[in-house]
Amino acid sequence: MLFDTITAISTPLGEGAIGIVRMSGPDSFQILSEIFKPFKKSNDVLENRKMYYGHIFNNAKMIDEVMVVKLPSSGSYTMEDVVEINCHGGMMPLREILALILSKGARMADKGEFTKRAFLNGRIDLAQAESVMDLISAKTEIGFDVAMHQLKGHLSEKITQYRDNLIGLMAEIEVSIDYPEEDIEEITYSKIESTLANIKNHLNDILEKSKSGKIIREGLKTVIVGKPNVGKSSLMNALLKDSRAIVTEIPGTTRDVIEEYMNISGIPIKLMDTAGIRDTEDLVEKIGVQKSKFYFNEADLIIFVLDASVALTKEDHEIMSLVKNKHAIVIINKTDLESKIDMNAIHSVLMDKTIIKASIQNELGIEALENEIKNMVFGNEVEVNYTDIMSNARHIQLVKDAEKNISDALNAVHSGMPYDFIEVDVKNAILNLGHITGESVEEDLMNTIFSNFCLGK
């Protein structure tokens, strides 16, 4: 039941200095008065937005010494009366305080229910609510900044503006449809086209920038491939600045896929070192090669490593034929040794790929690789405007759907179709944009979104 009093532990379970139990709802202040005894005169009333030291009691039994704060509905996160109890961060104090609050009539909060109430009470819109989880799960400073800008409502302001423009256009179309005989200025096809084309351009701009936003939020799946003994594991260790992968002179040392997360200029990278791709009779190595090919197909970015000190082999040519159709960077390793590789053959197959000459053992080429990855994500922009980046996959799809609706409406305009046909597509675009901010969201979708939140948020 919405708008009853809910409670949850809002900090991770385990040992820590401080743990927080949160309440929200109409009975929060009353429950606090029944279980909390401040370290002050008993007849004093606890003031709002002030932290008080005291103890939590279950009848005569003292549970823990705590610090508590009361936040009235006018300025709380949920726009309801909220209480936060800061206790010791062990498992037992948190669980005992939670159980005590539940015994006083509160119920356990569902996942994301505090943020859901903030949305339903009008404190934030749906896009801002979803950015809360993005803040919590951000892997880099840039990811955090993007989520923070969305929490502040920068994305919502743009989407709302485009939606309002479409609503205004639809109102004019409906007047022309419903009151053709009235002395009202009829909207023209040229005005419809101009308005729709302008909004379509803005949505296309958002979608173009969302490519980097999705990577910032979810990470760039990057797979290092190449035949055995070209320096793949050495490259991974150099990027991680740690000896994560075993490096030997023996080809086929890496038998399985090694995964690690790293940060390049604020971009979260899921880096995978794979077994060298080659024909082999070794059963274990063969399984590793099969895994390499699987991850190769799933990757956002391929780092293809070649050995400059040996001539191109059949395996190199086979891998090149696979890489040419992928987003890839080519590393020519071991350039400190005598070169025997045919660069012309590489350029002829991988003519559109960035090729970096490196000596991983001597730490040459690593910085160039990191800069190229940054350029692939952000383009050549020196400074990234975080307010323009959309990172949520649900939002991106809805903008794509709205852009498609507007394209269909423009096609109807160009074909001279009746206003009724144009109106249908404009309405669908309004609906899709409204799903982003929550203006037209269904209950089932809303419940699905908040079920992905952590408990206590």
UniProtKB/TrEMBL annotation:
<dbReference type="InterPro" id="IPR006073">
    <property type="entry name" value="GTP-bd"/>
</dbReference>
<feature type="binding site">
    <location>
        <position position="248"/>
    </location>
    <ligand>
        <name>K(+)</name>
    </ligand>
</feature>
<keyword id="KW-0378">Hydrolase</keyword>
<dbReference type="Pfam" id="PF12631">
    <property type="entry name" value="MnmE_helical"/>
</dbReference>
<feature type="binding site">
    <location>
        <begin position="229"/>
        <end position="234"/>
    </location>
    <ligand>
        <name>GTP</name>
    </ligand>
</feature>
<keyword id="KW-0547">Nucleotide-binding</keyword>
<keyword id="KW-0963">Cytoplasm</keyword>
<comment type="similarity">
    <text>Belongs to the TRAFAC class TrmE-Era-EngA-EngB-Septin-like GTPase superfamily. TrmE GTPase family.</text>
</comment>
<comment type="subunit">
    <text>Homodimer. Heterotetramer of two MnmE and two MnmG subunits.</text>
</comment>
<protein>
    <recommendedName>
        <fullName>tRNA modification GTPase MnmE</fullName>
        <ecNumber>3.6.-.-</ecNumber>
    </recommendedName>
</protein>
<dbReference type="InterPro" id="IPR004520">
    <property type="entry name" value="GTPase_MnmE"/>
</dbReference>
<feature type="binding site">
    <location>
        <begin position="248"/>
        <end position="254"/>
    </location>
    <ligand>
        <name>GTP</name>
    </ligand>
</feature>
<dbReference type="InterPro" id="IPR027266">
    <property type="entry name" value="TrmE/GcvT-like"/>
</dbReference>
<feature type="binding site">
    <location>
        <position position="254"/>
    </location>
    <ligand>
        <name>Mg(2+)</name>
    </ligand>
</feature>
<feature type="binding site">
    <location>
        <position position="123"/>
    </location>
    <ligand>
        <name>(6S)-5-formyl-5,6,7,8-tetrahydrofolate</name>
    </ligand>
</feature>
<feature type="binding site">
    <location>
        <position position="84"/>
    </location>
    <ligand>
        <name>(6S)-5-formyl-5,6,7,8-tetrahydrofolate</name>
    </ligand>
</feature>
<keyword id="KW-0819">tRNA processing</keyword>
<dbReference type="InterPro" id="IPR005225">
    <property type="entry name" value="Small_GTP-bd"/>
</dbReference>
<dbReference type="InterPro" id="IPR027368">
    <property type="entry name" value="MnmE_dom2"/>
</dbReference>
<keyword id="KW-0342">GTP-binding</keyword>
<dbReference type="InterPro" id="IPR018948">
    <property type="entry name" value="GTP-bd_TrmE_N"/>
</dbReference>
<feature type="binding site">
    <location>
        <position position="253"/>
    </location>
    <ligand>
        <name>K(+)</name>
    </ligand>
</feature>
<feature type="binding site">
    <location>
        <position position="22"/>
    </location>
    <ligand>
        <name>(6S)-5-formyl-5,6,7,8-tetrahydrofolate</name>
    </ligand>
</feature>
<feature type="binding site">
    <location>
        <position position="233"/>
    </location>
    <ligand>
        <name>Mg(2+)</name>
    </ligand>
</feature>
<feature type="binding site">
    <location>
        <position position="457"/>
    </location>
    <ligand>
        <name>(6S)-5-formyl-5,6,7,8-tetrahydrofolate</name>
    </ligand>
</feature>
<feature type="domain" description="TrmE-type G">
    <location>
        <begin position="219"/>
        <end position="378"/>
    </location>
</feature>
<keyword id="KW-0479">Metal-binding</keyword>
<comment type="function">
    <text>Exhibits a very high intrinsic GTPase hydrolysis rate. Involved in the addition of a carboxymethylaminomethyl (cmnm) group at the wobble position (U34) of certain tRNAs, forming tRNA-cmnm(5)s(2)U34.</text>
</comment>
<feature type="binding site">
    <location>
        <position position="229"/>
    </location>
    <ligand>
        <name>K(+)</name>
    </ligand>
</feature>
<dbReference type="Pfam" id="PF01926">
    <property type="entry name" value="MMR_HSR1"/>
</dbReference>
<keyword id="KW-0630">Potassium</keyword>
<feature type="binding site">
    <location>
        <position position="250"/>
    </location>
    <ligand>
        <name>K(+)</name>
    </ligand>
</feature>
<dbReference type="InterPro" id="IPR025867">
    <property type="entry name" value="MnmE_helical"/>
</dbReference>
<dbReference type="InterPro" id="IPR027417">
    <property type="entry name" value="P-loop_NTPase"/>
</dbReference>
<feature type="binding site">
    <location>
        <begin position="273"/>
        <end position="276"/>
    </location>
    <ligand>
        <name>GTP</name>
    </ligand>
</feature>
<dbReference type="Pfam" id="PF10396">
    <property type="entry name" value="TrmE_N"/>
</dbReference>
<keyword id="KW-0460">Magnesium</keyword>
<dbReference type="InterPro" id="IPR031168">
    <property type="entry name" value="G_TrmE"/>
</dbReference>
